[in-house]
Amino acid sequence: MPDYSAKFDSLDTNLVHAGRPRPHVEGAVVTPIFQSANYQMGDEATYDAVRYIRLSNSPNHHTLQARLATVESAEAALLTASGMAAISTAILSNLQAGEHILAQRTLYGGSQSFLDQDAHRLGITHSSIDVADPDGAKAWERVLTSKTRMIYVESISNPLMEVGDLEAVVSFARQHDLVSVIDNTFATPVNFRPAEMGFDLVVHSATKYLNGHSDLVAGAVLGSKRAVDRVRHLLLHLGGSLDPNTCFLLERGLKTLSLRVRRQNETASRLAEFLEGHPSVRKANYPGLPSSPGHRYARQYFSGFGGMLSFYLEDAAAAERFLDRVALPIHAASLGGVESLVVRPARSSHLGLEQEERDRLGITDELIRVSVGIEDPDELMADFEQALSG
Ligand code: PLP
Prior knowledge:
Layout: H1 11-17, H2 59-71, E1 76-80, H3 83-92, E2 100-104, H4 109-121, E3 125-129, H5 136-143, E4 148-154, H6 166-175, E5 179-183, H7 188-191, H8 194-197, E6 201-205, E7 219-223, H9 225-238, H10 244-254, H11 257-276, E8 283-285, H12 295-301, E9 308-312, H13 316-325, E10 330-331, E11 341-343, H14 355-361, E12 367-371, H15 377-389
Parallel strand pairs: 2-3, 2-4, 4-5, 5-6, 10-11
Antiparallel strand pairs: 1-7, 6-7, 8-9, 9-12, 11-12
This protein binds pyridoxal-5'-phosphate (PLP).
Pyridoxal-5'-phosphate is lined by residues 82-84, 108, 110, 154, 158, 183, 185-186, 205, 207, 217, 219, 334, 349.
């Protein structure tokens, strides 16, 4: 068995080299695709050790899991078939029927629908909390029950870009013996590593920034070995594991994460400032803007504010006009790739929520979400300018 424990000093180097097999397989510089479902038996003592694709233990899985754990400063990582497989398996492996979750007020629509519908059907309930509430812990205590087992948040929330008092979330979880889970998809480990702050589990849609090229679906769960093993046990049975071909593509995309995200941080900051000052824009949401309610937390916790932003136009008709006129970004769902995307969350990621619920949260028809790519920033800004001026 090769050794996958390679680790270097810096995040940028680890993105390229951590976890690479030693010795290199047949001298190959890149981890080859191990397109084999099963392997010859050795002296496996436990079921988990039997080498089989669904058990996430091919050389492609080993390399990538070791690399992700290193760059997120976590002890262990588990790849999953999608971000939703990571989220649903992390939640279900820690809760039983009758138990309860505290969940951030606005979340990615799929996570929200999972809690509202599927988890609820299995007897797992949740209450919403405002993680940016300056009175945090006191307000959260009011909805805490004797059956609360988990607190679930996003480092930057989709699509309103809220950043909460994440240190308070960790200490609240410790005080009340809750499993703290954070979706770090928007921030990425380049800007923020929640395990360093003490979160028990970090989940990712690796479909987005970690891969960065909008050409696969994948997810990851990270944390202590014990916490990840608990999730792994359920993943073995639910079956949401990642195939080696996709591991290969994800490993390739991950190598340039830092270059991409730093560029996206810079362009998104410029674009957010421009949008905030534009007369057609009612409000811009970006954690890097001093006007953002979560700015003080983002400044304290993050090394960059990310490549995602959203903004409100006057009404739904203005939003439609903007989407018709904008020429460079693609009007499409998903995010985190090298190409800029624009979308109305009310018509895509949050279409699964009731209209009333969307309006209550502020995910209205005039809200546009932008995933900033790596194009020339001046060309991108000029395109936004012409699309807003029409
Ligand atoms: N988490 C966040 C913040 C997301 O935006 C998404 C998808 O848009 C997911 C999780 C789900 O990821 P996937 O589509 O890979 O299942």
